[in-house]
Amino acid sequence: MNIIEVKNLxxxxxxxxxxxxxxxxxxQGEIFGLLGPNGAGKTTTLEMLEGLxxxxxxxxxxxxxxxxxxxxxxxxxCGVVLQHSGYFEYLQLREILTLFSSFYKRxxxxxxxxxxxxxxxxxxxxxxxxxxxxxxxFVLAISLLHKPDLVFLDEPTIGLDPAARQKFWDILISLxxxxxxxxxxxxxxxxxxxxxxxxxxxxxxxxxASGQPVTLINSLGVVSRIQFMSSKPVNVGELExxxxxxxxxxxxxxxxxxxxxxxxxxxxxLDWEKRYSGKIFNLQVKQATLGDVFLKLTxxxxxxxHQA
Length: 308
Description:
Subcellular location: Cell membrane
GO molecular function: ATP binding; ATP hydrolysis activity
Largest sheet: 6 strands, mixed
Strand content: 25-35%
Shape: globular
CATH architecture of the largest domain: 3-Layer(aba) Sandwich
Number of domains: 2
Distance between the termini: 39 Å
Radius of gyration: 22 Å
Number of strands: 14
Strand order of the largest sheet: 6-7-8-3-9-10
Pfam families: ABC_tran
Family: Belongs to the ABC transporter superfamily.
Low-confidence stretches: none
Order of helices and strands: EEEHEEHEHHHEHEHEEHEHEEHEHH
Protein name: ABC transporter domain-containing protein
Mean pLDDT: 91
């Protein structure tokens, strides 16, 4: 059953077309990821689904209802975590939870939700006193106070340290196990690959691919990548001539070889280094990822798109 259906959604700001006809569906009980660099149109798309922005054209259906006609009903069943959230500066978390809970007819028990998100020892603090990970757990708890069936998360782990990010992932996986449907945006390839049942890759306002992460990765026909850094500039053409190497590219100080025979290519690379006047270091062999899918489809990395 589809919880969300989006058809040919567009959004323009005068002459700038931010979202260029995206279409996708989100199924009940899954985590669906919108993966793409900053400026790709992820947040604009999400804000249109949340009713915060008016689409220029296209159709949005949530819980089988057209968004424009059923917005109030849809909002009762949806939770939202914005990319940036702020709360009353001098109120304690306990007071904020009580306040927001009073807005809804259907509401979760504050004690239970505090325990679930490990907020019990923090209820006497203000929002400003929380760490990044604690803030995100609290914001997620707020979004679930009215027991929604669907939650929108916009870059939920941006700025978090690896430990806090992992903890947040564990929470999302447990929520999915409870039957919650989650639509999240992210520019972290690892996050999309670990969390998402299905993912749509978005670039320059368009969806360039969608499906299960493993299916998208396998569609490349690429087994591995060999990455390394060099003490001196390397002629990329020499690397591409190595047996087993399909392509080679330079990304700032890192060289990236795409290979269908990693053992052969690695051996040849090490032999090549003996003839090379410099040294290679930080040598790594990696399995193909969603980042490779993005690179293959767009011709640039997520980081390059962000820097542009």
